[in-house]
Specification:
Layout lengths: L13 H10 L2 E7 L5 E7 L1 E3 L2 E6 L4 H8 L2 E13 L4 E15 L3 H15 L5 H11 L4 E14 L1 H7 L1
Antiparallel strand pairs: 1-2, 1-5, 3-4, 4-7, 5-6, 6-7
Helix pairs in contact: 3-4
Amino acid sequence: MFRKMRRKKQKLSIEECEKLLHDGTSGVLSLCGNDGYPYGVPLSYVYDDSRLIFHCATEGRKLDIIRENPRASFCVIGKDQIVSDEYTTYFQSVMVSGSVKIIENAQEKQAAAEILGLRYAPDDSHVHLKEVIRHSWKRLCMLEMSIDHISGKQAIELAASKQ
């Protein structure tokens, strides 16, 4: 179902992919639009226990599409260094494929919101985090992407420097 990478020397290991996902803070969620066009939207996220967690508003195009077709991909660029004299970039990126679901269960939604909150405000108090979540609860939607496939790639120059 998933293609093998053509440039195998540039392939990142699963551990390198997971590190990129842990270290990253944003990426692009791509969905199969119900109008026949792809729909990509940049999102903050957290990689937690082999899943991705996102937050969004309780309505909008993204949710309409997910309800109709939950299959998605998510791309994170971990490195993008322009090397002008070589007319290239030294890059590292990871692509995740899977399915996105809207977290409906209140306890699961609360837990996911706390995981996301701790990722982006690690020094905030747990009491304040819970208050912020409580305050935004009615307009807060939490999404979970289960992962079917992960692949990562890097510039050939970076791959060569590891050998």
